[in-house]
Amino acid sequence: MEQNSVAEYQVLARKYRPDNFDALIGQDALVRTLSNAITLNRLAHAFILTGVRGVGKTTTARILAKGLNCIGSDGNSGPTMQPCNQCEPCLSIQAAQHVDILEMDAASHTGVDDIREIIDGSVYRPVSARYKIYIIDEVHMLSKNAFNALLKTLEEPPEAVKFIFATTEIRKVPITILSRCQRFDLRRVPLDLLISHLDKICTSEKINSQSDAIRLLAYAAGGSVRDALSLLDQASALGSNDITVSVIEDMLGHANSDGLMDLLHSCLNGDIQTALTSLKKAVDSGAEPEQILSDLMDFTHQASLIASNSMLEDVSESSKEKLTILAKFGIPRLARCWQILLKGHQEIKAAPRPESAAQMLIIRLAYTAPMPTPSEILDKLPNTPLEKIEPSNTKNTPSGESEPPSNSDNTTKEISESFSSISNQTLPVETSEMVSKTKLESEPSPVGANLANKSKFEHLRDIAEFCEQQGALILAADIRKHVELVKLEAPHLELHLVSDAPEDLPGKIAHILNTNSNERWIVAVSDTPGLPTLQKTDAHTQQQKLAAAAEHPVAKKLLETFQGAEVVDVIPKLNQDNQTASTDTQTPELGKNTKIALDMEDTEERDKIYDA
Q: For residues 150 and 410, which has the higher predicted lDDT (pLDDT)?
């Protein structure tokens, strides 16, 4: 029984994978660096390649492995950036069968045991190749212990060993690994270069394609060559080797671009009915509401770039015409449209019915888009009666009134007419009298002004005590301890800070003064020393009181009677109830070194307060 052998189809992403650096697109800096390194014989022992998916990390690692081990058709060539792809090392590496080129997926080999196998094998020289090369893909998936186990070998590997790492998550790789490798950041492939690459493949595969369709497909790939080739494979199957814009839009779930730009134009014009009809057509065609809003945001962004005279290269010529029309709405309206769409895009993700949420968003956008921008409102404000109030019995139009800007929407015209009608209204005679009366009543009298301007903070002690009343005890303590008053004339405070004062102390003082005062206080720091701090002043005053207390006849008698006693405090005069209670109390027996507190004002009483 004969079986017809059918050649297995190879996807475009594998079929057109580059086998030399000339076929690698979009990575000129990497190719130039490696070429110079090989030419100068300054090739590193470890490389790490990073970038988004599909830009050539694994491909670069394999090409580099071939270039380092290529012996050429004559068998005598050295390392090169142009592997011949014909010698035995090149062919076996291309087929992933070379014994000295070990490729490991770190996603499935994450442990220390896997790394130990690499370390143990690295001490042996290559079997047949010039270099033994270890390619570890998705290296960020290795465990912490695995990374640590690799450090010593990675820093000082054997002479004929090279390491090539590839990752999409460079931040997850320990810095100790990065510092031992030469790092190459592979960039996203530019749109024009990717379009040219896809056109060549379409020609080679005999696929009919429209230029706008290829541009749309390349834009959807996001700079990834593999994604672009996968999408091209899918589109060619969907369109039977005939790729059109409609095929790409159906495949990607996008609505028709022209229809969506018409939808956006209707919204900006305030035509709610037309906008909702366009939205329904887009949804009925199979487009998801979230994708529709994403496309509308892209069009708004592109129109804003055109309006700002910026470079716009990622759009086809047919789309530029409608985008230019959208750009005429101006950057203020387009920016407001962007904010509404961005907020709505987040709302749709959380909405139980995305289609209903999209309809509400379109209604909101169509309702608010024609409204005047802040600049247009400000242009109208000088023409309103708020600027000039002239009582008159005749209707006069202000001479400086400007014509309302021409706009097709009714909302802007109604607002402009409202401004004009307000400006043309006749003001009653009583208006002037009412304004004058209100002005006279609102102006404070000179006496009231002086009272209002009088500050409750006339001394530094007032500020400290106010802080204590407000519960800011730490701030009050800092004021007493660290502040020397230089000048205080409300609302200006000039102070000198002693050593060890907090750096933010002046700011805190200014904050509490401005928060609790109608005046705008200015707190300045001076280099000139001022009056002693409140703490030193209080200590000096206390010493004077104690010295005066020690000269009191009663205190003298006690100090002579009890050797080692001293006056430690002066207590205010007791009230009558406390005096009576004190008289009935027997004086306790005092010992040596007793500290005494006396009431200096109670000179005729024999009451004494002792602190044993």
A: 150
- Which whole number is the average pLDDT over 425-443? 39
**Does 445 or 150 have the greater pLDDT score?**
150
Pick the CATH number of 455-531 from 3.30.450, 3.30.300, 3.40.720, 2.40.30: 3.30.300
Closest to 420 (Cα-Cα) out of 388, 451, 385, 452: 385
Mean residue pLDDT across the chain: 78
Distance CA 158, CA 458 (A): 81
Q: What is the pLDDT of residue 475?
A: 86
pLDDT above 70: residue 433: no
Q: Does the structure show a pLDDT above 50 at 612?
A: no
Which tokens sit at 494? 């000039």
Q: Whole-angstrom Cα distance, residue 46 to residue 57?
A: 14
Q: What is the mean pLDDT of the segment spanning 365-389? A: 68
Q: What's the CATH number of domain 12-185, 3.90.1150.10, 3.40.50.300, 3.40.309.10, 3.30.230.70?
A: 3.40.50.300
Query: Which parts of 2-71 fold into alpha helices (H)?
Result: 12-15, 28-39, 57-69
Q: Of 161, 84, 156, which Cα lies nearest the Cα of 121?
A: 161
24-26-29 Cα angle (round to 5): 95
418 Cβ contact partners less than 8 Å away, ≥ 6 residues apart: none
Type of residue at 170: I
Long-range contacts of 344-352 (CB under 8 A, 24+ apart): 344/293, 345/290, 345/293, 345/294, 345/297, 348/289, 348/290, 348/293, 349/290
- pLDDT per position as a tens digit, 524-581: 888 888 888 888 888 888 888 888 888 888 777 777 777 777 877 777 665 544 444 4
CATH architecture of 258-368: Up-down Bundle (1.20)
Using an 8 Å Cβ cutoff, are 495 and 485 in contact?
Answer: yes
pLDDT above 80: residue 81 = yes
Instruction: Give the CA angle between residues 231, 235, 241 to the nearest 5°.
Output: 135
Q: SS3 helix, strand, coil % of the chain, rounded to 5?
A: 50, 10, 40
Amino acid (one-letter) located at 123: V
Q: What is the pLDDT of residues 470-511, one digit of tens each?
A: 888 888 888 888 888 888 887 888 888 887 888 788 888 888
| CA atoms of 183 and 45, how far apart (whole Å) | 12
| AA letter at 547 | A
Model-level pTM? 0.55
Closest CA to 264 of 348, 351, 342, 325: 325
Q: What is the per-residue pLDDT for 574?
A: 52
Burial class of 110 by CB neighbour count within 10 A (0 to 12, 13 to 18, 19+): middle
Q: Which CATH number fits domain 191-251: 1.10.8.60, 3.40.960.10, 1.10.1200.10, 3.40.50.720?
A: 1.10.8.60
Could you tell me the residue ranges of all domains in the chain?
Answer: 12-185, 191-251, 258-368, 455-531, 536-611
pLDDT above 50 (res 436): no
Name the DSSP letter for residue 76. Answer: -
Report the b/e string of 11-21 with b at 16+ CB within 10 A: ebbeebbbbbb
